[in-house]
Give the backbone structure.
Amino acid sequence: MFEQCLALESWLYYHARSVVGASKRSHLMKRTLWIPREPDDMLILGLETSCDETGVALYDTERGLLADALFSQVDIHVEYGGVVPELASRDHVRKVLPLLEQVLADAGCTGADIDGVAYTAGPGLVGALMVGATLARSLAWGWGIPALGVHHMEGHLLAPMLEDERPEFPFVALLVSGGHTQLVRVDGIGQYRMLGESLDDAAGEAFDKAAKMLGLPYPGGPHIARIAESGNPDRFDFPRPMVNRPGLDFSFSGLKTYTLNTVAACREAGELSEQDKCDIARAFEEAVVSTLVIKCRRALKQESLKTLVIAGGVSANRNLRQQLASVLAKEGATVFYPSLAYCTDNGAMIAYAGAQRLAAGQVDDEEATVRPRWPMEELPPLSVAEPA
Ligand code: KG4
Ligand code: ZN
């Protein structure tokens, strides 16, 4: 695995040279902290390669998102029923440079216009992360600009800031993706306090596993949501895990077992019909959504806050958005979420998060380091990373 990563990296490094073109600053300049040219006017390249989506974007701190390109590897992994890490790394290598050329063309820019490179440094699949990290470091070196590793979940958390209506700090964030289910108090960028998280499966993972039980393709969340629309809401009543216990942690493994048992019971009674599948999907989705809604309300109450942000792949779920919006509106609270394209993995959220930190003077050293596991609370607040 390690040798394969190295081979991929050498290939990328070699080919990145053709994209580098004119150098902006001397690449011999070695810095770990740099002084931003003009914090109000920085063009940042964002690279996302943590899992099965290759995302590249250009974010300008004055003009906003200039260009954004994404390639989803779903068709590659679908036959395996989940992400195959080695195939993911290889495909990132194939797609990332064409996507970079595409965003440069779309934005009418060249490498010489870029002021910094932000890449996802973790959490994620190590080989996949290394592709983005290596390319980011190579480009930064070639262009003589800083690079910064961004935390993938911070990217998700800040994605609603790409919208016209942005939440103001402090707020509670519900981060719901394929790998994480977390409730976080957010007092500013890098000021995170974990309020609760899943003790076992993440919400997205539970959607994916339930979908598999129903014979639906990977990734299962959107498929469950689709067939749930034709489901009878009164046929099954699935348990809402951990809602009767105090605290803000989640657990979805019991719900998974309940789903499996319901599928088995339907099969015993005859064939698992299309309507059975829709009814089970509906009950499953209802159980996850109402569990998330209950915990979000509890978190807002505990923290005496009226603003909720939801982000990550599961925040694309329409039922979740609608229920949160209507329940919170009755309590005078507001929910913010990214537009659908920025709920799941994308380069724009990494470019945005990186731009905030690079503008504050934060920058990595020249090693391409990635962190497959990386607690978000370890991130420094922006004030710590002030320019020298
Ligand atoms: O944030 P994301 O793109 O990748 C990770 O960082 O994990 O999230 C992917 C997850 C998958 O588990 C997928 O099934 C789920 O988000 N997802 C959904 C929906 N769209 C994506 N889950 C429920 N409803 C959806 N509409
Ligand atoms: Zn994600």
Summary: Confidence is low (pLDDT under 50) at residues 25-35. The longest strand covers residues 64-72. The beta strands are 43-48, 53-60, 64-72, 116-122, 147-151, 171-176, 181-188, 191-197, 307-311, 334-336. The pocket of KG4 (ligand 1) is lined by residues 51, 177-179, 204, 207-208, 219-222, 225, 312-314, 316-317, 344-345 (CB under 6 Å).
